[in-house]
Every structure is written in structure tokens, then in C-alpha cells.
Amino acid sequence: MTYRRPEDDGSGRAKRQKTSSSSDSSSQSKDMSEGGVPVDPSAYLQSSTGWSKLKTTPVNERAKKEEADDVKPNPYLTATKDKPGEAKPNPHLVQKNEPAETRPNPYLAHMKQEPKEPKYNPYLAHMDQQQDDGFGYSNGYGHGLKSGKMNGAPTGSTLATFPRHATTAAMASKAEDGPNNPFNGKPLSDQYFNILKTRRNLPVHAQRDEFLNMYHKTQILVFVGETGSGKTTQIPQFVLFDDLPHIQKKLVACTQPRRVAAMSVAERVANELDVTLGEEVGYSIRFEDVTSQKTVLKYMTDGMLLREAMNDNNLQRYSTIILDEAHERTLATDTLMGLLKEVALRRPDLKIVIMSATLDAQKFQSYFNDAPLLAVPGRTHPVEIFYTAEPERDYVEAALRTVLQIHATEPEGDILLFLTGEEEIEDACRKINLEADEMIREADAGPLKTLPLYGTLPPHQQQKIFEPAPKARKPDGRPGRKCIVATNIAETSLTIDGIVYVVDPGFSKQKVYNPRIRVESLLVSPISKASAQQRAGRAGRTRPGKCFRLYTEAAFKKELIEATYPEILRSNLASTVLDLKKLGIDDLVHFDLMDPPAPETLMRALEELNYLACLDDDGNLTVLGKLASEFPLDPALAVMLISSPEFYCSNEMLSLTALLSVPQIFVRPISQRKRADEMKASFAHPDGDHLTMLNVYHAFKGAEAQLNPKQWCHEHFLSLRALQSADNVRMQLKRIMEREEVELMSTPFEDKSYYTNIRRALVAGFFMQVAKREGNGKTYVTVKDNQNVLLHPSTVLAQESEWVVYNEFVLTTKNYIRTITSVKPEWLMDIAPTYYDISTFAKGTVKTELQRVADKIRRKEAMKGGKR
Question: Which of 611, 728, 768, 799 is most buried per CB count within 10 Å?
């Protein structure tokens, strides 16, 4: 066989012609500007002739340069010779220092009184504030210890004699080896001891004493452990046995950037400690709290801990806070790090552990004033890295062929394929299953079990990824394997044993925000080199593995950025600013963030909150702003919901807010699109998508649907999971409304103003997301920002209305607005007069039309005055 050097490869990346949005649907990447975002992915992967092979290298060495070897031709990827495209600057990321104008918004007249202060902390509702918890302690909110317990530990527990912050690994091991559970006094099960053996083989266990010594001596510690080292499950337990939070009537918190990780890790640790999930070990995510009075170790999303801080600025209920997966640099994690730096000064008793899966932790050390660093290597085997010899035209198609090639030709071992979103993943699973069934029939291949994994997947389906691979169909048959098709959640948040082969197309969905036109969207973008290394590392967990990168070596070396840019540099900061204001942080410019956002982004956030009347002209939190911060919602949604009693439709807006907070409720299978569209049309309201969604929800709650919800949703091409989730979100939001005394009411359905009131209430929150039709064509222009857009093809709007309010701005090859409802310009000027002050608009069709409407309103008022 003839080989050639990988250095001869052309560089380039794949283009995927799909729509991108803030939902989980597939999408095409957009060009990115310099200074903070990835390169243009349109040049990626445009043809292939085979794989180029690197020499075997242990992934955990994190070599900066990977030495090239020879090309292995891949018969599953036929060559095409398209030239790679060139990277272009993205106009959606142009940052321009324009002065923001802050104006009050007086339209919420009913919000004149200060809301009542909660009588108790709503985030401690699971803790009985008046009664002991029945376990001998009350987490600091009850009557204290009962007799029969020793220092808050069960009678006879070795923990009762432990010196706090002075334990050793040997002492903890003795407690773990005892016949009874040191936390609840119950006999330990055989399963517990089997799991304990596995835990003690994890790399992190060998450095337990080293960790404890450092933990004892310092307030803030940076811990680096590669994925698979055991840091997420074991470090919180090491802390638990040393910090003894139950004796101090406190808790240990461990944050995760993703809900799925918080839930799955909490369940795993509960099993490891032989306790019931929700008791000693629990989790807290948005709209779901699985904790109790007994909880001493709580896994939670970083956003939930941030919300708790709003009601407890010093986080007094926690003795130790562990920020896991800090390298992902989510918006909430970055905000928490800035907050914890300040809390640490006020609370010298609080311990903080920052955990990262990447070795580049010096930045965390510097940020936390040269905090000590402890690094633990992962337990990885050598991983061979393969590149394509030429770029791929369609990364999804190339990925599917590669998975099937692996299944047909490679030894046993499970496969992990990275894709970008729910729709792309579900479609890929369906295609792989069809092809695999044919391979079994025609080529006597082993069974292949394909499993999806993404953030909105229900917990019971997520757990299927940990099930063993299917067995051979006959005693002498080829072994089966499973193929997990996942988003980048599988890079670091979850560790899946048995993965031997990784297929990496080189893309993920990333949030991008352009403050100049106030557009935030999810784009399919090239991953970073750090992400590529993390993905490859998934293949070497249990034995030597292989990683197939569906891009050239030149693209990896020259086009991928070193690390993904922090979310705070590419997000709308309105929610974050509102949170910080509620936390009492008024000097936003000097708030100590690891990577301060661009001034224009911050000014846009302040301007948006001022228009929403959440901040006054001096940047201070208003009554409405305080109330809006109580809701775990985007500020516009929160204001819409709070203002809805003014329009006599708060019950309906409560349902609609819940529907807008969950994944897409409509299902549109590729093979049944026509039928799905017909069923959607049966719910359609001529005025648009919001009212159509409300019609669906009302039907779902009707008697016919409730007899058999699963069948009803299947027949009507609706997502039962999304509708049930909306039901749960609605219930949680209703509790907040009742607590904050926001009145619940409805306009009678037979009243002709029923739907009109709902549309007006939409304007109260989304008056900054309005577009006007240009002439008689199909093009619309967004108000003030003057962006030309089209209505998304999925809309049910019966006719192209002159004015529409929209929920999403979708960036693809064309600009679309999605989830649309028609509105009247008179409502805009009535409900948001400050924003629609005509003198602030530039010359154009929007200003002309608004002037015409204003003149019409004045004539009507003059006529009324004349009659009087």
C-alpha cells in the first residue's frame, strides 16, 4: 500500500446546510469574526479519500504537536475535490462602541407597591424551619440536635469522633469499611462494597491524603483531574467525610454546568454512599428540587446556586462549595467565581474547590490569588488519532458512514459519535439503526444498539447509555456493541465506560451574541483544540482506543482555536446584570470577572433592562426589577408574566411562558412531514404561533387527551415529554406568582378580547422584538435594528401581517424570525411609549409608519375631545 504524509493534506472544514436556532434543531454554521469566536466552518470537510494516521499517543500527555504518520485510505468515504472556502468576518459579531440610552418604562402602572418580603427563603423550602428533621439535626433551621445522636451523626458512627478538617484517608476508609452507613446508621449492602472496590481503583483515590492536606491548609483550592479520574464523584465525598457538614448543620454543594450531569452524578453518588437519592444526597436544577431535610451533599446546576445567592448573599447554608467543570466557563460559573471571591473574604470558614478537566489551570490559580493547585492524571490508555486526507462535504453523512465502517470492520468496543443537537442526533440514530439492521441481515454483523444523549432527554432515557452492549445473536456470532450519539455533553460532563471508538466531526452548537443588533442565537461552529482533545480522550477509558476526526490534520493545527471562548464574551448579559443587581453588586464595571465582557455588551444589557423598567435611569433596581429577579426566566419573559394581570390574562400567559421555556412541542418526522403539518394546522390560530401553542396546551389538558396522553400526543405529532415538562414549569412558576402576590386571572373565553388581550400581553415583554413588513413582499425589517428578515417556514401565521412580535432570531444562510404573532402598531406605542418614541428612530419605513399611526391616534383623541 502506498502512503503519503499528512502534511500534504489540504486544510478545510465541512459545510452543513441546516437551520440553527436557540432550539436543538440542526443548523449550518455562520462565519465568525476575529477576536473571540471560531473560524468560518464553511471551509470544513468538503471531500475525502481516507484517514491519515497519527502514531499511537496517550491522550493524557496533551501533546501540543501530534507527529504525523501515514494515510490510511477509507473505502467508506469516496473522494470529491471541492476547494475549501475562505474564512470571512461575521457581521453579526461586529462590536461598535455606541452610547446606550437609558430610559424609564412607565407602562406597568400596577407595579407601584413594593412586593412583600418572603417570610422564608424559598430555596430552603425543603428544609423545615420549625421542626427537627428526624435525623438528629436540622441543617441550622430547626431546634438542633436530638438525644440519641452523637454530634449530629448516628449513634455509634465513626464520624462522631472525627476531628473536623483534620481527617486522613485512613480514617475515612475505616468509616467506609464499617458494617453500618456512617450517615444514616443503616447496614451497608453488598452492592455498596462492590462499588467501593471500583471507587478505590480510580486515579483520584491514590491522592486522597494529598488532597486532604491541601484542603486543610487553604480556603480556596484548584483541582485538576482529567475526565475519568473520578473527581466529580469522589472529591465531594472526600470533603463530606472531612468537612462533616451535617455536624455543622450545613451542606456541601457541587455545581455542574448541565442539568443532566447534576442529576446523573447525584444518582451515582447516592448509590456509592448507599443512600436514597433525595435524602443524604440530592440534586437541584431549574424547576426541580430533589433534596430533603436530610440532605448533606447537593449536586446542582451553577445557575441554581447563583439564584440561591440572591436570597443568601453569603451562602451561609454551605460549608464547602465545589465548582466542577470550571473549564467550560459557562456564564453562571464565571459569575459565581466572581461572587465567591467576595464571599470568601466575608466568610473565612467557607471552603471553595475549583475543579477543571484541563491542565491549563494557571488562569484559575491567578484569578484566585495564586491558590494552590493539585493535579491528578486520568486513567487513560493510548489513543490513535486519525484524520481525513481531504475535507468532508457533509460531516453528518461522513459520520454515519464512519460509524457503520467501524461496526463492520473493527474489533468489539462501543462507539461515541459527537453531533450538535437533538434533531440531528435523533435523525442520525434512526439512519444508523436502519443501516445496522441491513448489515445484520446481509453481512452477519453483530447487533448495534444506538442511543441518543442530549440535555433535554428525560433522565430515564439518559441512563440507558450506561447499560451494557447487546450480546451476540448466537453463541459463535459476532459480539454486539452500542453507539452513543451525543452532544458535547459527553466531552467531560459524563464518563461512559466501554467506549473504544470516537467519531468527531469537529462541530458543536455555541451561543453567539451580537450586541449591535441585539441578536443571540445558537450556531453550529467548529470546536476548539481543547474540545478535540477531550473528545479523543473518551476512547481510552478502558483500553487502547481510536479517534476518527472528520477533518484534516492541517485544519486541526491551523484553524481550530486553542480553547472555546467563555460564554460571558458571547452572550446577552441582561439576565446576568439583573442577577448581579439583585445581589447588591452595583459597580458592574469593576466587578471582578475572570474575563470582563465588552463594554458595548454590558451597556446593551443595561439599556434593555431600563426599557423593561427593571432598572431606573440611574441603573438602580426597580420594584419591577426586584420582582422579575425572583423568576428563573429571561427578563423579557418575566416582565411579560408579571404585567399580564394588566391585560386580564395571567393564567394564559403563565401557560405560554412555560411553553416557551421547554423544547419544541411539535414533532415533525422526516417520513411523515405532510401528516405532521396537517395536525399542526388543526391547532393553528390565524394570528400566529404563540396562540397556536396555547391552543395545543389547552387541548392537551382537555379530557380527551388526559385519558391517554401518550397516544393522544402520538396521534397529533406532539412531544409528550415537552408538554409534561411545560406542565411542571407552569406549576413552579405559579407558586412564585402566588408567593409574590401576582394576581391570577383570565378573560372569559367567549369574550371577543380573549386573544387580543394575550397578544397585547406579549407586547409588554417582547416590544423590543418586533418586525414590520417591507412593502407588499415577504421581507420584514426589525424595529430599530433594521435587519432584513424572513418569517420562518414553520410559522402558522395565516397571512403576512404588517407588524409581528417574534420570540427567536435564527441565523442561517438567511435571517429568520421564529415563533411569531401579529400585533398592532397602536399597541406598541401605548404599551411601550418610551421605546417607541418616534424621535429616536432613524429615517425609514418603520419611522414613517409609526408617525402615521401616531397622527391617527392624535386625530382620534382630538375628535373625542371635540365631542366632549
Answer: 611
